[in-house]
## 1
Amino acid sequence: MEVRVGRTSVLFGLLVSFFRRCLFCILSRGPIPSHLAFIMDGNRRFAKKENLETGIGHRAGFTALMSVLKYCCELGVKHVTFYAFSIDNFKRRPDEVQILMDLMVEKAEGLMQQESIVNEYGIRVYFLGNLKLLSEPVQAAAEKVMKATAKNTKCMLLICVAYTSTDEIRRAVQESCKGKIEISNPEAELQGKRCRINLVDVEKHMYMAVAPDPDIMIRTSGETRLSNFLLWQSSYCQLYSPDALWPEIGIWELVWAILSFQRNRFYLDKKKKHF
């Protein structure tokens, strides 16, 4: 009986994989976005809905992240960004914050496994944000993953942690000013030497400077707020808010987001050129 169930499970998996490839092949007839960004909303609500502990909800959210990342790679999306942890999230209960930090360390180590999706699909991983706010173990785990995947070139996974867009902009402006003012010139410093800051100066110092602006921003749970995420980069991207909680997100939410993008591609490109 167990052998029969096992064979049925394998056959079902093969059929699902075949159907997904066919679906993606049809979808690829239209333009595929270069960059998808996700606000993973609903992990705690999912845990409450299913009567689970908060940590279990976040673990389910990580499983959803891996599935979405796999779908994006199969579709040919080159950049995938996830809003994993806001600076504002440090205001949550200390025990919940610790659960999230421990989960980050655990999953970061898992990404370096030989059989992980990162190595299977040739994904380069970046952790972006004010990483100095993280504990030493989390910083060390993030550095290890970034170093271990530095030579991967097929896809880029951007994990925004200890991040807010206002903090990113503030830092970029500060770094731009530092680059313009000659600190070594005492007279210029005393006279309050003015410096001209251009958009390109600010943009090159953004955390997100490693990737193009997102084409689609997806926030689950039906919420339509950006919550201080990629405010600078999302001026002309497609916004999509499926009702599914983040751990419930599936292939159909992704497909509908891309179909919506394809319908509006001409308008969005026209807006970008005008800007």
Note: Residues 2-27 form the longest helix (26 residues).
## 2
Amino acid sequence: MADPWQECLDFAVQLARKAGAVVCAAMKEEISVMEKSSPADLVTVTDQKVEEIIISSVREKYPSHSFIGEESVAAGQACTLTDNPTWIIDPIDGTTNFVHRFPFVAISIGFAVNKQVEFGVVYSCVEDKMYTGRRGKGAYCNGQKLQVSGQKDITKSMIITELGSNRNPDVIATVLSNMERLLCIPIHGIRAVGTAAVNMCLVATGGADAYYEMGIHCWDMAAASVIITEAGGVILDAKGGPFDLMSCRVIAASSKEIGERISKELHLIPLVRDDGRKQ
């Protein structure tokens, strides 16, 4: 039986490459920066331009499909996931990296049907690494099949997380204390690349054993979530239960053992869900 969404995946890869070229060109020019929720939560004209390129292109080709885009939501559009085929877009994942020309910047395009992510495309454009995952058909980077490390012993693990853009002192204290508890298990180390999508893809490559974060959004996680699971990894809620795309929190791990062990150490940060429901 033919894969009904393969054409959409191929189109998403084309769009990610096109968007990546725009982002890489913009990194050589003067970047106009604006603030969103905090002085550390940034947006640029390029974020908005890239999202418009992707959405207008998809709308022309698939007029019946729905969209959730980071900048569209920031502009007031509802963040609602229905059963309709839905493109979930982060035009620049790692905007702060982009602003500082730190070379980890990604275009993230997830595609969900019946509220389940069918495929994901994450293009780390400065590195020219195209990560793809299709439900039931594996995960790849530049055509090479991906496989998580399979590490089950957290004391032998390297974990990725982020400090985030929230500058509330209580939130920062929780973020740092979570890191401290993990380091004292002890684990091998903690890294931060500055883009949720690339962080998750690094777990999919086996380069890291887990990634966790609270305070991110569905457009950060959608595409990479299927890349992780198709590479043999697991994706959990920060409490250790089933992953919820709208929950604004995630643990992506090389094994269930490591994912659940991380969840036992985490103190949760109070978050408003993307869909507005209570946690």
Note: The first strand starts at residue 33 and ends at 35.
## 3
Amino acid sequence: MSCCKEHQWKEKNHSMVSEFLFVGLTNSWKLQVLLFVFASVFYMASMMGNSLIIFTVVSDPHLHSPMYFLLANLSFIDLGASCVTCPKMIYDLFRKHKVISFRGCITQIFFIHVIGGVEVVLLIGMAYDRYVAICKPLHYLTIMNAKMCIFILVSAWVVGLMHSLVQFVYILNLPFCGPNILDSFYCDFPRFIRLACIDTNELELMVSANSGFISVGSFFILAMSYIVIIVTVQKHSSSGFSKALTTLSAHISVVVLFFGPLIFIYSWPSPSTHLDKYLAIFDAVGTPFLNPVIYTLRNQ
């Protein structure tokens, strides 16, 4: 009987929180207007830029190559990244009560980490594509064939889904009985977990280690791959070094812009709440906009 009562109590408490309140970014009217203009312009530019890249790659037969196949998929993921948090953030800027439902919060968390995982693998795939193109140009079409491109894409989605689901299964049954205030403008694992009515120290450590390890580890792999490419080219040809560096500069810029905020948010031992928020804005609004700009500036 006591066991049944305890189970009913847990269910009751779990259902007590049906929505979450965002603290938001700022209470300053001027900053809100500035953020509204900034976010709206960059969001629309990101949607248009990434959509244009996808349309151009699909419609132009000359761009049906591995590099542009991966670039089009990166643009597709950037469209998703823009849509997960930006519209809600823009809509909430002038609202007094910034509310999101429990299911809406869970859904947002799930897609944020799926998209993040997919983009990580795509960036690694693009780095490998550049390595083959620069270091093994005669074997490029043999190595980077259609099967390899599909393999990279499928691997990206599998890793993204697994990365999100591994953490997701741990939070589905967490009891939430209050408070329900999130000091942010979007839902993410660390702050969401802290609101649970049980001790979540070990779970927080697991989530931080998971996302932090993926961010730092992937950044290290990419950095090493670029160093190998540059060193290899420099050994064979001094004139080819500047060309390789120019080719890689777009990729390096995108990698730094993408991984910089992630590493700080998930791996920094003493994170700053305010800095986290503005880094998250940059990651949600700035990076999806800058990716197509950086890549298109380097290609005719």
Note: The first strand starts at residue 19 and ends at 22.
## 4
Amino acid sequence: MRVALEQARLAREAGDVPVGAVVLDEAGTVIGTGRNDRERTADPTGHAEIVAMRAAAAARGEWRLSGCTLVVTLEPCTMCAGAAVQARIGRIVYGAVDPKGGAVGSLWDVVRDRRLNHRPEVIAEVMAAECAALLIEFFTTRRVG
């Protein structure tokens, strides 16, 4: 989670919402990192999780990320949760809960939908306070400034 938090800080420095993600392989080695990059790229899919999964897939040379763990500072949205299911991610670990857009247990629970052919394990609220603090500070300064 500390690597994901560093990615989130880099997103904040670039003027984007501070969300960071990493993908770990079965041995726990980082094979992909990502941070929110929508502002710089003008890409609505530029979420940290998507960026990290793309990097991991490129590193592996295949789209299937079976056995990998996606670690992200904020609970994934419907797009990112769906992409994790499609990539066959084995485990999702996230920090801050997103009650307004979370799709891994909060607002929706895409990854545990029994109608889907793959359901990753979920570990929630890892270093949640630290992950949330970055977001709170970011949006507080945006509203004041």
Note: The radius of gyration is 14 Å.
